[in-house]
Design brief:
mainly alpha, 9 helices, globular
């Protein structure tokens, strides 16, 4: 019981200290009030899920950790917005028949991404994030290293480890959804 109370008090303390900073980071990337507020909530959910790590970090490390989570979540949201904008732009340019076919294709791709996300839950957070940046967003190791605050060599090595892990997991799976992913692994 004392642990839950201690966790609650720590979360209240973190909320009071970092809520505005997280909001500022998210809003500066997304330029959207509602999405920035969502990022604040998502960041605190992740923090609550990783309470043991929070207790192990000193103040400066904790601040970097919290703001990195907010920044990464915001970048994910920004890219998601860009994909939706591109999809809408393409949809408006096409004839209705072609657009209907593309919607079905897009839905299939979305379903595939959900299945891949489920598969990636087998990886630790860092490997999963790097794998997504490299495979889904086609970022370079240099870009990944800047986003995650690690060296370029570390980003490359973590991706290789994640790739091998995914390859081991899907190696025996005969499924059309994973064939596209297999070309990356």
């Amino acid at each position: 019981m004392k642990t839950k109370n201690k966790d609650y008090e720590k979360m209240v303390e973190l909320y009071e200290l970092y809520e505005q900073k997280i909001y500022y980071v998210a809003y500066s990337i997304l330029n959207n009030i509602q999405q920035a507020e969502d990022i604040v909530q998502e960041t605190f959910i992740i923090l609550y899920q990783n309470m043991e790590k929070i207790y192990s970090l000193n103040t400066e490390e904790l601040k970097r950790y919290i703001l990195r989570i907010a920044k990464n979540k915001s970048i994910d949201g920004y890219r998601k917005n860009k994909r939706h904008e591109m999809f809408l732009d393409e949809y408006q340019k096409e004839s209705p028949e072609v657009a209907d076919e593309n919607i079905e294709e897009w839905e299939q791709r979305s379903i595939c991404e959900v299945q891949i996300d489920t598969l990636l839950t087998e990886l630790n957070d860092s490997y999963r994030q790097i794998f997504k940046y490299k495979v889904f967003y086609n970022l370079t190791y240099q870009e990944i290293s800047k986003i995650m605050g690690i060296t370029e060599v570390n980003a490359r090595k973590q991706f290789e480890r994640a790739r091998k892990r995914v390859q081991n997991i899907i190696g025996g799976i005969e499924n059309d959804e994973f064939k596209e992913l297999q070309k990356y692994v």
